[in-house]
Amino acid sequence: MTPKTLRPARRSAGLLPYLLIAPALGLLAATLVIPIVSAVDISLHDIRVIGAAGPFSGADNYLRVLADPTFWAALGTSAVWVVGNALVQTLLAVIAALVLDQRFPGVRIARVWIILTWIVPTVVIVIIWRWLLSPSGGLVNPLLIQLGLIDRPVGFFASGPMAMTSLILINSWRWFPFVAVMLLAALQRIPADVYEAAAVDGANPLQRFFAITWPLLKPTLLVLTVMGTLLSFNVFDVIWLLTAGGPAGATRTLPVLIYETAFKAYRMGDAAAMSVIASLLMIGLAVMLLETLAPKEKRS
Amino acid sequence: MSLKPTLLAGALALAGAFGAAPSYAQTEVKLWHMEQPPHRVARIQELIDAFNAANPDIKVVQEPQSWDQVYAKVPAAIAAGNPPDMLFAIPDFTTVVRKVDQLESVADFVKELDAEHGFVPAAVEPYSYDGGVWAVPLYNMALSLWYNKKMLDDAGVAPPKTWSEWKAAAQTLSKDGIVGVGLPANKQLYTDQTTYAVMVNNGASDLFNADGSIAFDNEKTVGAYDFYKDLYQYSSPDAANWTWGEAEACFSSETCAMILQFTVISTYDAQGGGDAANLGVAPVPHADDQADSSTIAYSNGVMFLSKDPAKREASKKFIRFLLQPDNYGKFLTMEPGLFLPVTKDGAAAGTFWSDPLVVKYKSQVEQMIKNADRGMLFGFTGGHVFPAIGAISAQNMLAETLQKVVINGSDAATAVKEGAAAMTEATK
């Protein structure tokens, strides 16, 4: 075969991949790029109500948002929310993964059972927890009174710190199984002979965990930390349904503030500016996490 | 015999037998309302079915919505070009819809209905501004003080009329797990309503000055917030998350001795024992230096959002049908006692007064109607309406201010000042 005869085939092969990915790219453009471009466009206009027109306002919306203490308060609340969720979920997930990595009767059932909280719809989770934590008729308050931990029913969403703690625990309870399953998969990839060699060398369980398990789990944890941070930051449903950002704004994270600004205060331009700032912050945070947490040899 | 006529005859016979599609065009009209409880949806459907059966060229369909979402959903639906044709609403909502949609005045239609049924003027007033009438009033609601007579009798407490009596009663009743008075502190419409009900009973009814500036920051308002804070200590620990349902549940389960609510009749009858003699209702107590009680009252109405003349006409036909006294009585008793008539002939409708629950709780319903006579609505007092009330209401600024006082422990004067600043910002 001469090079000349190959040329048309190469050309058609060169086009084929583009043709194949074109539908996916088109879909991505329609569902991601267009909304992002639209959000940036709205953020540069003084638009009040969704669908209404507004004059070009340049960076005014951004300047107003950045000067608004409510925005910074919501950003701070988001930081508490993200860090709280990351800590609680990681702790619970590591413990659960280590337990599920053991051999004991019923371990297969336990591995399936644990993901139930993750697959139950959010609204069901919210209804269950609202009922459980209700001071009138809920199960948790009477239990705590019987245990002598409290002497009268407590409103778990009645004060700022209580509401935030309750929300973090509920959200973590929902999502830690996802992290645990990922960690379990990572644990099961660690060859058994590494542990056996360590045992032969006289390493105790704690030493084996910190010398073998933890370093080998770190790449998975890195991915989960970045993913978890982005996912936690964007959580809206659980917060909105349980506290709607209250009481008195104590659980008003940035997504909640963006929603309120757009659909309650009818300041679509400001809400879009907040969204753009939040997106940039998230991109920056993801890059920073990857840079600081990635194994050094990989980076070099 | 030719095959073609036979086939044609067969096709016609089949069409007849299985109910062929009608030859006339049917106008479909979409109704959004926020009366979500299943029994209310069922009653509305009953009326829609009767209307649709009598008007085969029109098909009304209902899509119940949530109060929490509707302020966001309607502008989005209008922007998407898919708004409802009819939308039940409260007065401040008309200002929101007018911002995004060229809402057409229904002054002529209201005049026509007024001639036939006689509207209560106070029901039309909140919808009449900027030279038009923006919704047709449908029903009235007013907040009252509901109390459990036996619990009050056992505690030796008389139904309170003034704030000092109210506080003393709440204090006396709050023992052995009983909530003396159930008051919400959620950032939600219910808390806006209870807060305003306390404000008007201290003479702080106006949110706006005549020039459109905010009149919220004054001594009377601060006094009302201070008093709410005093009472809130006798409310439920989870009241910071309450909406109407939680308050009703607290009352019906005899955990709350008193609550502020539009009605509790249905829940009380179904879940609270249903002893009519034990259900007390009174005007919201007033400040000691005020002469009489007032309350918050809503004239609920229906807006026509459709631009299509056929749909608008079909919508009007449905509302004409709904306001016919027999139908209107059935409509109002979808939640007996909650929805009060806004037309003169509706107030006398046999179907209203013969409803079994209205018969059983007649004295309570009569008291509620009496309470509604002195009803006011925030943003719609003083004879002027300003569009900013839509944003103030949608952001639950009265409730937000209350949260600062009762949850964060802020000084009422400071919180009210901040609330006034936020309201001023919303007017820009």
UniProtKB/TrEMBL annotation, chain A:
Keywords: Cell membrane, Membrane, Sugar transport, Transmembrane, Transmembrane helix, Transport
GO biological process: one example: transmembrane transport
Ranges that cross the membrane: 71-100, 112-133, 153-170, 271-290
Keyword Membrane: yes
Broad class of where this protein is predominantly found: membrane
Top-level taxon: Bacteria
The keyword Zinc is annotated on this UniProt entry: no
GO cellular component: plasma membrane
Pfam family, one: BPD_transp_1
UniProt-annotated location(s): Cell membrane
ABC transmembrane type-1 domain ranges (all copies): 75-289
Topology within the bilayer: Multi-pass membrane protein
PANTHER family with a match to the protein in the record: ABC TRANSPORTER PERMEASE PROTEIN, INNER MEMBRANE ABC TRANSPORTER PERMEASE PROTEIN YCJO
Record family assignment: Belongs to the binding-protein-dependent transport system permease family.
Protein name: Multiple sugar transport system permease protein
Organism: Prosthecomicrobium pneumaticum
From TrEMBL, chain B:
The keyword Transport belongs to this UniProt entry's keyword annotation: yes
Keywords: Periplasm, Signal, Sugar transport, Transport
Domain of life where this protein originates: Bacteria
GO CC term (a single one): periplasmic space
Transmembrane residue ranges: none
PANTHER family: ARABINOSE-BINDING PROTEIN-RELATED, DIACETYLCHITOBIOSE BINDING PROTEIN DASA
Family per similarity comment: Belongs to the bacterial solute-binding protein 1 family.
Protein name: Multiple sugar transport system substrate-binding protein
